[in-house]
Amino acid sequence: MADDEELEGATLPEGIEVDETSAYFGITDSSDLINRLAETDRLNGLGEFLSITGDLLLKQATFDFEMAATRLEVEGGEIYWLISEPFGILSWTDPIRVFLGQEDSMGNPGGPDPDLAATEKDALEAFNDPFRLLKMLAIGHMCGGLQELDQYLANFEAWMQDMPANKIRFLALHQQMNSVLRETQGGGDASSLSSLTGGPVTTVSVEAPEGVQAVEPIPELEPAPTPEPVSEPEPEPEPEPEPEPMVVPAPVIEPEPMPVAAPVIEPEPEPEPEPEPAAPEVSISSAFDAPLSTQEVREAFDEMDINKDGVISQEEFTSSPVIAKLPEAVQNEMFERIDINKDNVLQYEEFTAAAEEKTNAPFLAPKRAPVAQPVRTPVQATPQPVSQPMPQSIPQAMAQPSAAGRQRTGVSGIHHVLQTGIYCGGCNIGVEHHWRHCPVCGSSI
Predict the structure, then answer these.
(1) Are residues 401 and 348 in the same domain?
(2) Under 8 Å between Cβ of 101 and 113
(3) Which end of the chain, C or N, has fewer beta carbons within 10 A?
(4) What is the pLDDT of residues 129-183, one digit of tens each?
(5) 356-385 burial, b for 16+ CB within 10 Å, e for fewer?
(6) Are residues 377 and 420 both part of a single domain?
(7) Final residue of a structural domain among 204, 229, 244
């Protein structure tokens, strides 16, 4: 259609341009909402849009355009204009597309292949879905209003400035969003995305705006399993007729002589197998030699929080010198036990709860010996050099002055608060009276 050709009966409103394609489909006028969003800022425009459609985005896996258009009093096609123009959602995640090696929204070529696993590519690719981004923003607006919505927008854009460094953040956010959407689409409440803000999790009920028709929760359908092809069994060949057996006279059986009873030799008792050494117990004391004070908990948390974002990722947790000395299986299990809300990052409250001293908590004091038993050395009040080689490497000891001015030995990177006067004979750290094994080197005490 030529640019200078006008459609009969199509009138273009003032303030908003309606192109010829829109006029062809009968969109010759814009609603009050469209005019208002064209004049307001992005944050307030998104807030007004989400306050009307938030339950449609969170309760149903597929966005209901017809019901959304009725609530907004716009045409269905104008919703796409809202998403692409005033909100800028369609081009918002261009940095993610370029990082994945894809063209951006303007057709510019992407970067080199980042060589990611298939599951990581799928998780990052999900953020290129504009309606999944709207679901993420709807969670923030419903849980904390414009203030939390603004925080979601700012943090998400800051992460995209350095995709390689923040890849783990996006993967954790993807997993937490899946968990929250499963709850809301199943009729449950919406929980805030703490992996995006680093703050505490808040929960609110997902309700439709007052005076509009509510929607029923519709979860995302799981793909039906593909039936395996049924192969028809091959017909079995007919059995050949068996020849009739010949009658053979039965032989005369002579009586066998009575057997002589052989002397009974009792077998020697087998030696009892030695019990296998018990596996090391997953415990906080595997990393810290005693419960920490409030200040020491804060210092330990800040040391692990390498990028200073207010939370500890699993990579930061396992790379800490305090945790890296433990077996990998113990590191993973310890991280899962501390991560109470299962959002794949450790908040300060979770870290504090794990470091508090609880009388009956099984993970505050070692109760079992390690798999490899070290050579027992006598307990000495004064650190002495170890004459026998230990089965595992011992961190370099470092002297620290105690509160009373005395010198006590310890391990670099670990806060010592025990002043019982008893020290491990293997690594010279302070230990409790009732401990049977050292939580650092595993020596018997």
Answers:
(1) no
(2) yes
(3) N
(4) 999 999 999 999 999 999 999 999 999 999 999 999 999 999 999 999 999 999 9
(5) eeeeeeebbbbeebbeeebeebeeeeebee
(6) yes
(7) 204
